[in-house]
Amino acid sequence: MNKDQIKAERKTLVLSLLAGLCGNATLAVLTSSAVSFSVFPVIAFALAVYCLYQEYLSKPMAESTPAIAFACFLVGAFGYSAFLRAQTPEMGSNFLPLMIALGLLFWVAYKLGIMKTKAEVQAEAEA
Q1: Is residue 95's pLDDT more than 70?
Q2: By the 8 A CB rule, do 61 and 12 touch?
Q3: Who contacts 95 (Cβ-Cβ below 8 Å, separation ≥6)?
């Protein structure tokens, strides 16, 4: 992806990250006794999914955007799971969700071109 595509797709990626985070929070609120009930994760999840759907309807996506958006969704879901397990250790270890979230985050950064070296950036500029 080039810089213009990244700027155009930033809203979609942030919304998918937020949808993953709020989706896991909604699931935790509804199923886990360690988390007190609140209606706000449910509302935030519904709004994030609605905004993501409206963004999908208004603009066509680039070829690699759906895979990156799904990875951002999973980063949000696994990130909240790791955070929740760090807060309440009786739920289990947070090592696996944290490693999965970090691995996906590095993959997203690589796909977006954030982790390129200066030589790679100069070679692209010359071509």
Answers
A1: yes
A2: yes
A3: none
